[in-house]
Write a structure and sequence with these properties.
alpha+beta; six-stranded mixed sheet
């Protein structure tokens, strides 16, 4: 419910602070007085576009602020959670426009973006202006009306969630299938490359080992000869150099027993003998181990040539990099297999979702058929009460050509103003006045079943007069008993039904500038305004008497 609105420096409104009561609130005023300006200011709080042209005084800010009492619901709480804001039933919305045209929005003094205002606006106010009658041609609106009456909100939420997931899965399946097709083009090539690299039995450090072995084998004969020559230097015939050192050590050992200073020399000579003996033994072993094998040399060089060829082919410089290439082919082929597994899983999940959607769609269809059979006569009766006594109104539910987020149905509103005429699409068969009355009936229904806090009607009674206007006023009055209704009207029959009455008018400010103001009317002021609606600019005694009678009748009806 809208409790208060404060407007400053908005077009012709210099300053305005209104407390808005509950019930049916009537707003009247002469043409051009600024009733639409008032609604425009409210629209700013609901996310409407803002720019510097809205400023009355271009040198200072424009501010529109309103207090609302908001009924708690899961949907509105979810919106607050998504915005990371704490929900409160008492809300203060404020929109500020600077002279540069920059706009800022606040909710309970916390900055919010305009998108958030647009998202929460349906839970605050529904503004019905004349152009909204065109919504009767909108299939989504017709579906919304029927679903609201049928109480399909929770079913629709489940269906929309599954439908979104179904579409997401469809996109993912297309992506995976494209990946599989692309992979299939290269699969044989990858398998061949992997087979070649796997068959190569690659080992880290193999190139270095083979190159060292190749050098040894290539010089094996020369190495054997040189080792034999070096070993021969340790002996000549029966003479052994190492053995002679051993004899020298024995002699020095005897000398050192008498002369101690020769003991150190004896030890040093023994160390030399041991080292030389070790070298001689090592040379002998190495000489025996040298292999001269042209066959093995050919094998090593062939292996090296093969590895160098692989490295050149794959554009790498080490065996380790070849191993990495092999692993990359293995991973790619594994991904191909994984993609198929993912595809199978996604297809299975999609099938399950489709079954769920089919089931939910069938339930929605049955509920809509049932609701249409109940709602059609209710709306027909309501429309007939607004001075279209032979009106025929029928809601038709049929299969849609394609599935949408609301299910598999289409909804048509069929209307005829006379029982002798076949009903047709309401947007084509109803006149402007009839559309106004039909829309009012629908709004009254939505308000009842949708638990909306505030409804604003901007001259919904256009094209209506006489008894029809009186009935529309009675309908608005009835709606005002359960909710807050703001009705901008030019019809005295409607204005007389209001619980409260505000008048919008222009006047000259102290600086001579024309400004728009709003005042609350009671007593004689209210009578004179209704008399003005009855007679025009000149208000005579007859018009005042007629206005008094209208107000008296309206009071009695309440």
């Amino acid at each position: 419910m809208l409790r208060r609105i404060n407007i400053s420096n908005y077009i012709l409104i210099e300053s305005l602070d209104l407390e808005i009561p509950d019930g049916l609130v009537i707003i009247t005023g002469e043409t051009g007085a600024g009733k639409s300006i008032l609604l425009g200011a409210v629209s700013l709080l609901l996310g409407a576009k803002a720019d510097a042209s809205l400023l009355g005084d271009k040198s200072r800010n424009c501010t529109v602020e309103a207090e609302f009492h908001l009924s708690q619901s899961e949907d509105i709480e979810r919106l607050f959670e998504e915005e990371d804001m704490e929900f409160s039933e008492e809300l203060i919305l404020r929109r500020v426009i600077s002279p540069s045209g920059r706009s800022r929005a606040f909710l309970n003094d916390e900055p919010v973006n305009v998108r958030f205002l647009s998202e929460i606006s349906p839970y605050l106010i529904d503004i019905h202006s004349q152009h909204q009658q065109l919504r009767l041609a909108d299939g989504h609106f017709r579906m919304q009306v029927l679903d609201t009456y049928a109480g399909n909100a929770s079913l629709l939420a489940r269906f929309a969630s599954d439908y979104a997931e179904y579409n997401r899965l469809n996109s993912r399946i297309s992506e995976i299938e494209a990946e599989i097709r692309e992979a299939g083009k290269e699969r044989e090539w990858r398998e061949y490359q992997l087979s070649e690299l796997s068959g190569a039995r690659l080992a880290p450090g193999e190139i270095e080992e083979l190159e060292n072995e190749q050098k040894e084998l290539a010089h094996s004969e020369e190495t054997r000869e040189l080792l034999a020559s070096a070993l021969s230097r340790f002996s000549c015939g029966d003479y052994s150099f190492v053995q002679e050192l051993k004899e020298s050590i024995r002699d020095l050992s005897k000398v050192s027993s008498h002369i101690p200073r020769f003991s150190e020399m004896c030890d040093r000579l023994e160390s030399c003998r041991i080292e030389l003996q070790d070298i001689e033994d090592g040379l002998a072993v190495e000489a025996d181990s040298v292999k001269v094998s042209p066959e093995r040399l050919e094998e090593v060089e062939s292996r090296l040539s093969f590895l160098w060829g692989l490295m050149k082919k794959h554009g790498v410089s080490t065996v380790e990099e070849l191993i990495e290439r092999k692993e990359s082919f293995e991973a790619a082929l594994a991904r191909d297999e994984s993609a198929q597994s993912l595809l199978d899983s996604a297809l299975s999940e999609r099938d399950a979702l489709k079954a769920s959607l089919d089931e939910l769609s069938a339930v929605l269809h049955e509920r809509r058929i049932s609701a249409a059979s109940e709602l059609s006569p209710l709306l027909q009766q309501s429309v007939r009460s607004l001075e279209i006594p032979q009106a025929v109104f029928n809601i038709v539910v049929s299969a849609s050509p394609e599935r949408r987020s609301t299910g598999d149905d289409e909804v048509e509103f069929m209307f005829s103003s006379s029982a002798s005429m076949a009903p047709g699409d309401v947007s084509k068969t109803a006149s402007g006045g009839e559309l106004s009355r039909i829309m009012l009936c629908i709004k009254a229904l939505l308000a009842k079943y949708g638990a909306m806090a505030t409804l604003v009607f901007d001259e919904i009674d256009t094209g209506v007069s006489g008894r029809a206007a009186d009935r529309m006023g009675a309908m608005l009055s009835g709606m005002g008993k359960n909710m807050q209704i703001l009705a901008i009207t030019h019809l005295p029959q409607v204005a007389a039904k209001g619980d409260f009455h505000f008048c919008v008018h222009k006047e000259a400010s102290e600086g001579g500038k024309t400004v728009t103001t709003v005042s609350r009317l009671d007593g004689e002021d209210k009578i004179r305004e209704i008399a003005r609606l009855l007679s025009g600019s000149t208000v005579g005694d007859a018009a005042i008497k007629n206005a008094e009678e209208l107000l008296c009748e309206a009071s009695s009806a309440k």
